[in-house]
């Protein structure tokens, strides 16, 4: 049988990205946590962590983290019947993209009420890579751009986020005096969220540009928007975030007939308990107020969970 104190130590080390911080989260010494991990590996006969170049779970470690994540969620469902199990406070760890967090997410969950305390532990991750957090057992749910779920999880389509190519009027006059041309797109500085952000490449590829282009890197949704408003570059901004600036004339569209829609799917553990299931139902119902319906070309048929 699994010793859940040992699994708790594994979860803390991965969640906190280190033995020292993991020990602090558990209120234990670093030595005690290290001994628990060693004992777990000894009992299982194989490693559960890769120590270098950074702390990461092995394949077995990921399976164990997925297991303990779901056990925690299910245990919370028992509190109404067995109060002695622990605190009623419930914490959900969720990975989501910065643009969703800065636009619609908070309003969407503001009126979600389970009748008991619920806290969110949010991990900001690009929509293209958030699913790796679930695969590694680090989160109970995530928002990502793919319908393919990991083993033991479900995926629900929520809708799409529309992104518009925008810049300040002055930037357009300086860098695109002849309109949107391949040459201008390879010379004008863009603003890109991070190395995993492929939106900009998708946009310029639409115009036949595949060559490298000058760009700023800004891993902050608000900072990204501010750099564009300051005239430092052009970029793809959620329509929800730039609508007012376009209305006031602070920003202008590079072109009116091009929009990029990023599909968003909500992934969550099938055995994640009543609160996670209720949150999933809630998001599926209310997300349409902020997200656009996906066309058949934008919405791939979801792959059934394995």
Automatic annotation (TrEMBL):
It comes from Kushneria sinocarnis. GO terms for molecular function: DNA binding; DNA-binding transcription factor activity. Transmembrane segments: none annotated. Keywords: DNA-binding, Transcription, Transcription regulation. NCBIfam families: argP, PRK03635.1, PRK13348.1. This is LysR family transcriptional regulator (Chromosome initiation inhibitor). Residues 2-58 form the HTH lysR-type domain. The keyword Chaperone does not apply. It comes from the Bacteria. InterPro entries: ArgP, LTTR, LysR_HTH_N, LysR_subst-bd, WH-like_DNA-bd_sf, WH_DNA-bd_sf. Belongs to the LysR transcriptional regulatory family.
